[in-house]
Amino acid sequence: LNKRFPLTERFSATFRAEAFNLFNVAHYGTPGSVFATSSFGLITTSFNNNPVGTGTPRELQFMLRVDF
Description:
It is built from no helices and 3 strands. It is mostly beta strands and 68 residues long.
């Protein structure tokens, strides 16, 4: 979402909000593929273990910028 607010003739402010994984959908890893183990077909990891990127929890980001 992006909204521009005129403050004066020369100045304006812009507010911006961004959302990542807004509905907080889980992204699971691949299931175990070795047939002879007890973890065959079980999902034991998430898609991504990094703190940012695809598969992370819900994130919101806000920005306020003054233009002159």
